[in-house]
Fold this sequence. Notes:
By secondary structure, the protein is mainly α. The chain is built from seven helices and six strands, in the order H-H-E-E-E-E-E-H-E-H-H-H-H. The protein has one domain: Transferase(Phosphotransferase) domain 1 (Transferase(Phosphotransferase), domain 1), CATH 1.10.510. Strands 1-4 form a two-stranded antiparallel sheet. A two-stranded antiparallel sheet has the order 2-3. Strands 5-6 form a two-stranded antiparallel ribbon. The two termini are about 30 Å apart.
Amino acid sequence: MKNGSLWNRLHENRSSTLDWQTRYKISLGTAYGLAYLHHDCAPAIVHRDMKSSNILLDEDKEPCLADFGFAKCLQVSGKGNSTAVIVGTHGYIAPEYAYTYKVSEKSDVYNFGVVLMELVTGRGPMEDEFGENRGVVDWVSAKYFSRESVVELLDERVSKFCEEGMMKVLKISVLCTSNVPAQRPCMREVVQMLLEAYPCC
């Protein structure tokens, strides 16, 4: 794709910063894609490796979901299906998947929440600063729930232009990465929340 992957644009090509409106557009477009897989396909499809390097950007920076090599059709929508091995990428894997081997739409929701955190913070899923065996979810959650200066979580390259909108999306990312799968929203709900977080800047 003309603009590479979201990973490239956020973490490798840092000289060309994506503004918040573009990041928001990417988040919403990706959410629509996952909602389609989960709610409009029969049977439902779970991507199982949703991450920023699997979100490709076209010439208009519209997102396209890529790499369906680990995708799985669910026999009964909304029910966890067991797998023989854990697949996915460190830093994105939902905690319940690692110990139950069960995959569901809520696993993708968790992955997507990590991507939202990348968009809001500008950080990768795993960085040395977070601590050993800790990822961006741990780092964000610790600050978010301790009521520390949450604004410090925002990517300073863009936060001065749209702090309010970024805070709304940060809240959505925290909901998506809840340790309890049942407490995570479904992707249709995520789409609606993102629509309500439309940037006013």
